[in-house]
Amino acid sequence: MRPQGKLARLRRDPRRVRLVAIGALAIFAGLFAPRVDAQKGGTAEAFIVTPDMVAPKYRMFAEAGDLALKNSVVTAVVRKSDGWLVDFFPNSPRPPSSPQLKRYKSVDGLWFLRSYVHDGRLPKSLFAKVVRTKGQEIETVGELRLGAGVLEVTTSYRLAGDQPRLVITSNYKHKSGGSVSRLWLADRLKWGNTDYFVDGVRKTRPTFAGSGRWVGRRGASGDLKLETLGSKKMQIGFQRLFYGLAPAIEVKYARATIAPGETAVVQRALTYETISTAQVPQKPEGLLEATLTDENGRQLAAKLTFRGIEGTRNPNFGNDGDETGVNRFAWSGLGEFKRKLPVGRYNVLATSGIERDAATWDVTIENGVTTRVAGKLPRVIETPGQISADLHLHQAPSVDADVACSSRVISVAAEGLEFAVATDHYAITDLQPTVDYLIKAGQLASRVLTLPGTEVSTTENLFGHFNLYPTPLDAKIDYSDTTPKQLFAEMRKAAPGAILQVNHPRWSVIGYFHRYRMDPTSGRIPATFKDEYDPDFDAIEIFNGLDATMEPRIRQVIADWTHLLGQGRRYTATGNSDSHKLAFHDPGLPRNLIRYGTAKTDADDLDADPAAVIRAVKDGHVTVTSGPVVDISIDGVGPGGTVRGKGKRVKLYIRVRAAPWIDVREVEVLLGSQGNRVRWIPIKPTKDVVRYEKTIEIVAPGNTFVIVLAKGVRALPNVFMPETKPFAFTNPIFIEP
Asked: Checking DSSP bridges between strand 629-633 and strand 427-430, what pairing results, if any?
């Protein structure tokens, strides 16, 4: 097994989360040991989880006091606080059944499975009041009030002999009151970020509604299924909300009317069992070999984008692959590719980030024939003293990111990023050991600077997601049922001097500004939330990769930000991919160009002091971009700085550069808290690197600030989401006349 990085996992106890630093790929050899040895002959043992039973494993939600079942094959954990099934995994490490996790063997296969009842109006989740062991089972008991009636729901969890199979039986007993009618008895399930399969369906799309005897996925610890044990098929539904993020699965087993004294029973099973799908006939294929180098002929991490031409369809390498191919893309840490393609005609585009030119070829792929291409991707934009960074990246430690750390690092390098911050949910991940290993193993051409971080994702009281970077591997943060003031104070204590960043603030449910109803025209928080909302953060993720095709949404968060700046808050604007996959969320789309120092060459940027980079982020020396490189200054003062004593008229220097394959058509100059557009500058289409360079005069009455935007109208050619147009903006220069 290859070392992929360091990981610290979040664990909750009644007081706070404990983050314990561990080796990321330490081999798991029995997470729990029952108090009494399990007997032979197919018996299981129920026992209480103790602190010393917590061992190295990804995506574990078990904590001391929870209840576990173990047979000779698998272990299941039921959470004591609510009766939800939160862990289910093989006792001996097993490789994943999808390429995207590579050789990660110690990954828990389940996020959660919880029951609910739908009464025709709203789903009502079941929270158990009693969670106990009962012989070789775990039993939970809870109540649901449904109109005139009360249901007592008793659920038992039982392992089936020496099989990787957990049988779950729920009894819905009418306890008191009148009849309850037309109830859907159901579960909600999540188990990784991967494609789903449904019984009898040849190809399941990201949004699905239908029926079957089972629903399953390939991934962590092998194929995993949820199947009904009833006589009828279950209703299965899931709905994609965002590309690249697998949704929760809703499974409805039965529709029932339960009269006083009656009981309805639902039985289902979770099982590690191979998923058989119809074999797609193999199409004739040929091999494409490509070699990409930099301007000096040296190895260079790069990305290939394939597009079918002249009647050939775009290739589709699937959604769950590694860097050798996902969707219609491939990545390499060395710029060396071998990729099979169906017979046909293709345009092949090679890129290595926004600061380098691209190479392109039209190729004919013939059956059994190897086609070879080679090219250079020269640097066309020099940015010494600026480092290209993505400050929001997810990989395997996240419950919703089935991406091996090695694939993540290679994809980051292939996008021309120089600085990467791992920000996993419920975990602290350090990618630097992965970088070191890949370089030593000859799989990565140059270094990538990294920092450990985490995305603190609130639960119970949902009010947002917040990045913290850098984060010590032994940090302690309580993200459950907390408040902004409590959470931010804990984050500051855990990582003094780190950046506390508000992520995707306008998203519903998990957006901080959305949760506290920030006024979109003023940036004010209603008085009713005054005691809850906390303004003590450093940065705002203005541009999230999932919003890359939705400029109005980005503009709204820019407006929120300028309103806050007008209130005297000096928050740094950032832009990050929030990548959870290789395709779909392209790392570096967008990215931050952080002016941290005065390096003489771009190569010297890889010797940057990470502490200097963090200081630069905190000071606002950042430009956000998905393509154009924008430089601005007033008398030599750039973004994040303050110009004083220049009067009402100031001279603003603007330079916009872009690689020839990136479109730029206009520049905007915004002034003050309302983001008033004081200049709009059209740019003629050209492939020249410098698209605009001029010093203009602006009128800046009173204390104010200036921000510059640049955008294109032609979509970027090397990203998944169609109509993703180049967009960039600077942090402000503050002006005090």
From this structure: unpaired
